[in-house]
Design goal:
This protein is an alpha/beta fold. The protein is about 35% helix and about 25% strand. Helix 3 packs across helix 4 and helix 7 packs parallel to helix 8.
């Protein structure tokens, strides 16, 4: 029986030109390159320049993804932009991207699930495409986290960076079993608001009338991360009948090398299958997975037909997984 599958047909990314190294950070706060690398695996991150907004990063990533898909912007009828750092409280940054690309049809909206945002956005766009509500979607993760960091707090300012990544999804007919053929095979989303105080921003229009700064209980986040991540990955394996040996690539949220290593070890995923870019990008929140995908596609690791497992966890807590055949 034929049904619709959301197929990845384009991938793109953008990083701001300015690079902030650990050595430069050590001149700003009480830290060192060794301290940061040992605890996070991060060596450098990109920082948006003055006047460079989340929408600007998102547009450039979207343009790269459209070029890769060999599509015109007018072919897109849905934009889902995952971000926790929008240009404005409203309207949605997605409509700024829509306008910049010259798209006048369809729908564009933001989605906020912090570091899990891109996973939530992919699952949302997938549902639009499979239902027939849209035909081609731009799914973007874009962040300027440097704007919500307390640069005197060495526990957070060393972790995050700015960037954007995007995928183009196209609704295509599929005949065959659940795991055959290209496209999104399964997605699993979770949230638990009891953990809000462990990772949050201490401001907002309704509460403080300010933007606020990112606050995090690092040890608590680490403690919960591995268990939550493995939970939704096991769900993905159960839904598809696949296992760690069956996947070709594991592309996790790029938050911390120790979390990534521990998750892969617990799931018995071969370290050689793990795509890791946290060393160069830092934690770019909703942008981290599409940025990592773009790197692995460009260097030839991820190829058409590969089974790619994606996962993320973010403030809230939110967490989720997506399995896709490229």
């Amino acid at each position: 029986m034929s049904h619709i599958r959301s197929v990845v047909v384009g991938c793109g990314a953008y990083l701001p030109e300015q690079v902030l190294t650990n050595a430069q950070l050590a001149e700003m706060v009480d830290t060192s390159d060794d301290w940061i690398v040992q605890r996070t695996g991060i060596r450098e991150r990109h920082i948006a320049s003055e006047g460079e907004y989340t929408s600007h990063l998102a547009v450039k990533a979207a343009e790269a993804a459209l070029k890769d898909a060999q599509m015109a912007a007018q072919d897109i009828d849905l934009i889902v932009l995952a971000t926790s750092t929008p240009d404005n409280t409203f309207p949605a940054t997605a409509v700024a991207v829509q306008h910049a690309l010259g798209i006048t049809q369809g729908a564009a909206f933001d989605l906020q699930a912090v570091c899990s945002g891109f996973i939530f956005a992919l699952a949302t766009a997938d549902n639009f495409l499979r239902s027939g509500a849209a035909r081609r979607a731009l799914v973007i993760g874009a962040e300027t986290f440097s704007r919500i960091l307390d640069w005197n707090d060495r526990g957070t300012c060393v972790l995050f960076g700015d960037g954007a990544g995007a995928l183009v999804l196209e609704a295509q007919p599929h005949e065959g079993g659940r795991i055959e053929g290209r496209g999104i095979l399964t997605s699993h989303l979770r949230s638990d608001g009891r953990h809000k105080s462990k990772l949050y921003v201490d401001g907002g229009p309704s509460s403080t009338r300010t933007v606020g700064y990112l606050r995090m209980e690092g040890r608590e986040v680490f403690k919960h991360a591995v268990g939550m991540i493995t939970d939704v990955i096991v769900d993905a394996f159960n839904a598809t009948g696949l296992c760690a040996d069956s996947i070709d690539w594991f592309v996790p949220h790029q938050a911390n090398k120790r979390i990534i290593d521990a998750s892969a070890q617990k799931l018995r995923i071969d370290p050689g299958k793990v795509v890791m870019t946290v060393e160069r990008h830092g934690n770019t929140s909703a942008a981290s997975i599409p940025l990592a995908l773009a790197v692995a596609v460009e260097d030839g690791r991820i190829k058409r037909g590969d089974v790619v497992l994606l996962e993320a966890m973010g403030g809230g807590f939110t967490w989720g997984s997506v399995m896709v055949r490229w």
